[in-house]
Batch of 4 targets.
Target 1
Amino acid sequence: MASSSSVLILGLAFLCHVAVAGRTCPKPDELPFATVVPLKTVYEPGEQIVYSCQPGYTSRGGMRRFTCPLTGHWPINTLKCIPRVCPFAGLLENGAVRYTTFEYPNTISFSCNPGFYLSGTDSAKCTEDGKWTPPVPVCAPVTCPPPTIPKFATLGTYKPSAGNNSLYRDTAVFQCLPQYAMFGNDTITCTAHGNWTVLPECKEVKCPFPSRPDNGFVNYPAKQVLSYKDKATYGCHDTYVLDGPEVVECNKFGNWSAQPSCKASCKLSVKKATVMYQGEKVKLQDKFKNGMLHGEKVSFFCKNKEKKCSYTEDAECIDGTIEIPKCFKEHSSLAFWKTDASDVKPCETDVQTQS
Ligand SMILES: *[C@@H]1O[C@H](CO)[C@@H](O)[C@H](O)[C@H]1NC(C)=O
Ligand SMILES: *[C@@H]1O[C@H](CO)[C@@H](O)[C@H](O)[C@H]1NC(C)=O
Ligand SMILES: *[C@@H]1O[C@H](CO)[C@@H](O)[C@H](O)[C@H]1NC(C)=O
Ligand SMILES: *[C@@H]1O[C@H](CO)[C@@H](O)[C@H](O)[C@H]1NC(C)=O
């Protein structure tokens, strides 16, 4: 009994002391993202304040309501106002999201991979209510409309893969009508911009009538005009040889792929000789009874007198002319005791070219 009354006395004494000293509370501490109501510079003991979090923030921990105590010291405030978090939006199919956090009031931005476009806006903000605004976009595939077909062309390979349209990187291949030549790439590709790469052109091409070669002939289609891909066939008379391909074609530049001519064969001034022809020893007089054709090549044997050995030198028939190597010595058929150069042992290779 005595003790309880003494507590009461103590308490009364305390109250009196405060009332006498007039202890007031100061302006309360500022708390990030919170507001205090009422906000004043001085509070009488017993006055109440309420902290509330600003829009976009939620309270966590501690108390929100405080009464100014007789001590004049606001109690320690452990309240925290933390930002609201918007739904996870870190992934965008066929695209990318740039963000720091998904908290209020941050903004995140979007981009799409090549071949996709943003259907929606390129950024969104986390609102006070914890929602993205405007809503998160999607990356939609880019499509190309059916390609226009160049004049004098047909569409070869083409398969729209998105309904009537094509997707990024799809291709279409054109062909020119017969006798039209293609300029540019026959293949077009659907780009990330939703258009096709540059179309090729098909142009009509004419070639002049080929002229008949001297000592030969040329055949070509009996037509009014000769066009792209038309062919002409060349040939030569008797001992003449065609220099160039037998068949030529009208190319897309309006020219023939080649202009063959007829080249004369060679008469041989040498009566008898053993020569190398295509890797074999042959008798010139037998092998080339009717002369050598243009372009044919033989190797004559020559003697190195000091070293008593033999070496070879080449000779080629070029349009009726063959130059017999100077080192070659033709024996009279009566000089049967002389050894033919082709029967002499060959010189060391590095001596061959000396004469
Ligand atoms: C494709 O085009 C045809 C003819 O224009 C049309 O009838 C059809 O509805 C189109 N299809 C799609 C999937 O757009
Ligand atoms: C033609 O285009 C295709 C695809 O666009 C490409 O792969 C090819 O290299 C091109 N050809 C030429 C000759 O430019
Ligand atoms: C396709 O579109 C892009 C962007 O608009 C443009 O730069 C390009 O020249 C276009 N390509 C063709 C072949 O028209
Ligand atoms: C056609 O060929 C001739 C000779 O080969 C050449 O001079 C001419 O420039 C060529 N013309 C074209 C269009 O290529």
Target 2
Amino acid sequence: MGQDKELIVRSFHFVCIMTVIIGTISHFSDESEFAITMSKIGLTHIPKDLPPKTKVLDISQNNISELQISDISFLSGLKVLRLSYNRIQWLDFSIFKFNQDLEYLDLSHNQLRKISCHPIVSFKHLDLSFNDFDALPICKEFGNLTQLNFLGLSAMKLQQFDLLPIAHLHLSYLLLDLGNYHVKESESLQILNIKTLHLVFHSNSLFSVQVNISVNTLGCLKLTNIKLDDENCEVLIKFLSELTRVSTLLNFTLNHMETTWKCLVRVLQFLWPRPVEYLTIYNLTIVESIDEEDFTYSKTALKALTIEHVTNKVFLFPQTALYTVFSEMNIMMLTISDTPFIHMLCPQAPSTFKFLNFTQNVFTDSVFQNCFTLVRLETLILQKNGLKDLFSVGQMTKNMPSLQILDVSFNSLESDRCEENCTWVESIVMLNLSSNKLTDCVFRCLPPRLEVLDLHSNRIESIPKDVTHLEALQELNVAFNSLIDLPGCDTFSSLSVLVIDHNSISQPSDEFFQSCQKIRSIKAGNNPFQCMCELREFVKNVGQVSSEVVEAWPDSYKCDYPESYKGIPLKDFHMSELSCNTALLMVTTGAIMLVVAVTVTFLCIYLDLPWYLRMVFQWTRTRYRARNVPLEELQRALEFHAFISYSEHDAAWVKNELVPCLEREDIRICLHERNFVPGKSIVENIINCIEKSYKSIFVLSPHFVQSEWCHYELYFAHHNLFHKGSNNLILILLEPIPQNMIPSKYHKLKSLMMQRTYLEWPKEKSKHGLFLANIRAAFNVKLILDTENDHVKI
Ligand SMILES: *[C@@H]1O[C@H](CO)[C@@H](O)[C@H](O)[C@H]1NC(C)=O
């Protein structure tokens, strides 16, 4: 393949011209930091305020008519000066005597008539073409320009030894503008030692130059502006006969040629036995008429004929008259591109063509059908034509046994006849089907030994899995389609290059990295990646292969969805293992729950958690209630916070534990032995005490149950409770009371015990604090007590 590409370039002939131009451009490109462009701004003089360091100055297409030494002498670093398309009429080369580095001077397209000479040695490129010189402007000082590569000149007349002063230079390129040449009688000009000679004639008049130009060595000849009719055709032939005799002339280009068909065939016929190997005609216009012309395909040195950009001004003509001349050519390479030609004929005898390029014509599916004579054809390019049916293309190749490369890109090819068997010649290794209208079906109609397949810019949605016959495929380009996944390589076991960017791949499957072991390069950017759990595997795989394999990573690989990730490079996309792995998530949740359960059980069993919870619950409920009871209701004539009823047996606990704890918080207690009013009966005292207290605390124990008095107290308090309708009873169970121990007559006590609304005195010392705090909380209310002395605020 590489070889053929080279052939194409060479056949375009530009090789010899391009080397000069490219060489010149690249040579100066690194001066760009001191480059100044001031073209097309109507300047009449070179501005005086340019930085003296300027190296490249483009001042073309202005109105400058005069150049003086003071204009440029201060630009001592100047290397490139472009002054084309101005109105300069006279030039004294001595103005450049302070520009020692000046290498490139373009003065083309001015009105120069005269130059004054001065020894300058630095020029590499000197262009004086397209001016009004009468004779060739050659100073004898030009003979010292030993570095001169390019020389452009113009003249109205020529003399044999005009170029003698520079004959010893080894010029690469000599441009001779003969647009104003007017001499009618025959002249001659001798040119020595040039690689490329470019002659430009008048663009609008018939070719009439009768100079006998002789050359010693010449590699490339280029003629621009050739207008011919049937009569003056011989003038050109005569002009060329001396020039094309030299055996070194391998490349010949005719540029902007307008001719009759008859004259074109005459010119081709003239060149056929000449040494020219690469003939290019660029921008050809055919006028007048096209008729059958005889052409003798004698032995020729010609390898490649290229005709590009043809305008046909003849509308009615026998098609075969035109096409036969080309189809029967006994050369290797033929390029006819950018023409209105609708067809090309099958050669009548086995043909010498190895390379045919018919880019950008209007060929249809009928081209080369049933053509058995293109037996040596290796490369066929039918890019940008009107081909429609992939099956016909396959059929066309059937009789081209040497065909290796086929390019049918930029047509309107469809592959709808999916089920039918399609045939290809087996020799094809490279097939370019890009920019067509092909669908998934195309994979069922491909040459079996393909190595390179270009299918970019089609309408493919998926690559069928059951395509098994592309075992040799190494490079696959399916960019700019609608694929939703990467392919696996089970079907393409040799795949090493995959281009699949600009598709609709959102969740690339693992299969690609698993099955494509031979992959050297994958380009999958610019797809709408869904940055979810499934993508992590792909990102991981990309991270594992070597960095050259994934093309355009990481810049072209971005999240498209979800919205929160949009635009984020895939390489920065991370998701935790936990949020993606359901099994792991379940195991983790289970483990956490187990730990919680064990902890809870432990707390319940060993630390009596339920007791604490009950306490806390009680506390909050008390506080809540206290807050909800209207204060006024409590503001009755209360003297105490609490009345405590207990059995004599429990007195020690009450006095040592309960009372100190409550009184420490300024809770006023009514104790019978302390606060009983003498003279009143015991019952009166009890009722009095209960009524004057905000709450009544009962310390329950087996002794309490047995005490008659205590039961009275409880009865009154309970009565009081229901009377007032509030919950002012606090029961403390100091010691457990067996159910059967409570005498049946005490049914109030029984029912209270049943409701379990008592607070149990914990045995563990650690719990005593919380227990007492809980009791205290019941009194945590703002209450104005009606004491004898004062109103105490709590
Ligand atoms: C196929 O043709 C297109 C368009 O002419 C071109 O850009 C591409 O490089 C070709 N493919 C190959 C593999 O040569």
Target 3
Amino acid sequence: MKLLFERSVKGRRTYLMPKSTFPKAELPDHLKRKEAPRLPEMSEVAVARHYKELSKQAFGVTSGFYPLGSCTMKYNPRVNEAAAGLPGFTGVHPLQPKDTVKGCQEVIIQAEKLLCEITGMDNMSFQPAAGAHGEFLGLLLIKKYHEERGDFKRKRIIVPDSAHGTNPASAAMVGFTVTHVPSDSEGQVDLEALKAVLDDTVAGLMLTNPNTVGIFDRNILEITRLVHDAGGLNYYDGANLNAIMGWVRPGDMGFDVVHLNLHKTFSTPHGGGGPGSGPVGCKKILSPYLPASKLGDEEKEKSLGQVRSFYGNFLVVVRALTYILTLGKEGLPQASGMAVLNANYLMQKLKDVYPMAYDRLCMHEFVMTLEDIKKKTGVSALDVAKGLLDYGMHPPTMYFPLIVHEALMVEPTETENRETLDEAAEAFMAIYQKIQEDPESLHLSPATTPISRPDEVNAARNPVVRYSFDKQ
Ligand SMILES: *Cc1c(COP(=O)(O)O)cnc(C)c1O
């Protein structure tokens, strides 16, 4: 596809302005350009077509099925955008006097109340701008808690081997060392291994439940009790609350601090680097250290202080509140119930031909392993993922979590209907047939997309993100 610069024709314009009747203002010489800017010159319709064409090259959640595991790429109701676009929210300035932004204050007060109710926490700060940022703040709270008690020897955070990569990274950023505990054959934390690493140098445990293989750890109360008994605190990575919201609460599972990804579960579009929000909720014992985030609030005496400018990404909170209020107390558990049902439905349709890493009831996502298929046929998880593109669906997450070999991780989400899930199952089956009959063809897929297989390593190491006029 040609770029705007390559389509440019000298003299083309998108507008017609009346001749100015004002005298020409002269700029001082040192402020003048030496040469005219090399902007593309095009007609309006050509620009409109260019961007339309460009949008067709990308795959979004409105293009088709987008079952990206661990990251919850779900369809976000448009009413949230309408609420976040209200001038009363978009037109405020963070330095406005407190009593002129009462409506915005009310949004944060309501969101804190409802999200604390959903998570079983007592207080929440909306400052962190993303999940990993929330982890960073949550772990600082744990560190501060121990230090305030004069307990300086607690330097370790326990992280299961199935954890999201940001967990050990955040622990290291806060200055903790990371102790990994293995998972058992069911994908749960190995209790004996956990007991073996618990002592008075443990600051806490970081856990996702359901974890990143889509399994709900049945021993959760035992796990959090063991950590508490050893004097540690429990951190809940709530980036994906999509399987449990309205059913169980991290606070009731024994967790002391949690972050949420409003840009996953609570309906802000994510991906592409857009603004996110990773609020951190905690139990009362940690509340004194939480940064203020209600507009105009003073920092409390023991607060860790600001972790981000102003009040975080406020409009993301508006979307989350709209989502929660429109679904209500009945709708939230219904949404997570559907997410779990959809994942299990698709898993059941596939599991006879695609081996599942953990063959038991899954939560909002499931993981298959193509290790055997690859050994026998040479077709890898990557080949299957690429093949799915030719059936009009976005590939699931590949090669994650790392503890499963040749992994494909599928999260259908609650918004997909049965027909879409059936079509997805058919696509998987058609690919399975190709694996048997013509495995070679899958190494060449996709065949129907604008680009087939980019050189991903080269694209990551030597990205070309700027147009070079020298090429002309
Ligand atoms: C996405 C995710 C994160 C990180 O969230 P970001 O907003 O990308 O920083 C952390 N943990 C889990 C389980 C996640 O799925």
Target 4
Amino acid sequence: MEIKKLLEESSHYIMNTYNRFPVALRKGRGMKVWGSDGKEYLDFVGGIAVNILGHCHPKVVVAIQKQAQRLLHVSNLYHIEPQIKLARLLVEHSFADKVFFCNSGAEANEAAIKLARKYAKEHSGKDKFEIITALNSFHGRTLATVTATGQEKFQKGFEPLVPGFKYVPFNDINALKSLINQNTCAVMLEPIQGEGGVKIPDPDYLKNVRELCNGHNLLLLLDEVQTGMGRTGKLFAYEHFNFTPDIVTLAKGLGGGVPIGATLASDKVASAFVPGSHASTFGGNPLVCTAAIATIETLLEDGFILDQCRRMGEYLTEGLKNLQKEFSSVIIDIRGMGLLIGMELTRDCSSIVKACMEKGLLLNCTAGSVLRFTPPLIVQEKDIDHMLDILGEVLSSLS
Ligand SMILES: *Cc1c(COP(=O)(O)O)cnc(C)c1O
């Protein structure tokens, strides 16, 4: 179908919830995707931190093909072998003892919120239900997770919101301290605020939050939907910050491109969920778990990709810092960890993203003025050089 017709039908049949670019992407391999017109793009968005192994990684594709022939879905009325294997992999490589599977980041956070409330009510009393989250955070679009999201722009029009959430500035331990009261049951944070503009806390912040939680008998929920699965150069971002959370949520990179979410917890916390507490029809189905197993096994093989992620993160940051020297009136800051990198500009970045796209480069703009780089972790120096060339051309055409 011609692009004009596709765009017409898209707006005719699909609810208008996204501002989309006027292209339809049809095919992908590694770092590249192609539009319906055959145009090639270098992909530094990676499905918004989802395609950690690049597009159509052969190990993931073959695993999906084999599983699709064997069994797609049976429901959680029965045990599912790939689900058990995936849970074991996640447990063996994290602080956690138990896993609940669902289909997205919002659902993983929804489960975390429900688990925290149930645990607190059973262990500390019925008035313990309040969860403190950070301003400028992002936790999803369901009613509870959009309430947890500390940004009014996502909540507007959906009131009344879910009761029991309070907000503090991110990276401010004293603000957090002063908001804790007898109703507080948990603190919920992203280790690095992704959608909020790649905001990285001080090295001690999360450790201090942990100590504060210990002192007040609060659970610490960590939303690693964006930062997890190797994105920051370690399998989980909490590993950089010297503390252990009580609950961690995963989604984006977990399935290497298929929709899967997970809520990880210690045995003590997980035991608040019993049969009937929570459920998901599709959660942890054979197909998506098989894709996630292939993704994690490939990611952890020899530690090669995590190592690559750290090295390419440094290389990319250095390249962006060179651009900053050249365009110091437009670029305010470069910050990141591994391959989650933000470039803050003095201006709205949407026109830059558009111009890059015309030159065959996909970039993402978040929080209005932050270019966010979340390429697949398999990105190579030549891809980064190519990206920097295009971005440099676009930046120089601005002035
Ligand atoms: C993307 C994201 C979510 C929401 O995930 P969905 O799969 O879109 O529901 C939640 N938390 C964080 C930190 C995210 O980046």
